[in-house]
């Protein structure tokens, strides 16, 4: 299994647990890095708004996982 890597967000793969990714996203720095590297550009604002409101980010992580599994989850970085 290939792991995505970048300079900003820690390496994650399809085998990385949602809870582990959600724990990383508690950090402002990591949430912004995830948004920049793994969220479609037109969705970054919505993701960061959800994050700032304390919303459950599980749907975002699950959407990333689907993209990752079809080969679109590599960092844009």
From TrEMBL:
Domain of life assignment: Bacteria
Name under which the protein is recorded: Phage tail protein I
């Amino acid at each position: 299994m290939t792991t995505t890597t970048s300079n900003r967000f820690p390496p994650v793969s399809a085998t990385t647990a949602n809870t582990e990714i959600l724990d990383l996203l508690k950090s402002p720095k990591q949430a912004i890095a995830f948004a920049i590297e793994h969220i479609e550009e037109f969705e970054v604002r919505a993701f960061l708004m959800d994050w700032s409101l304390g919303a459950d980010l599980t749907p975002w992580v699950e959407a990333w996982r689907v993209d990752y599994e079809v080969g679109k989850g590599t960092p844009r970085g």
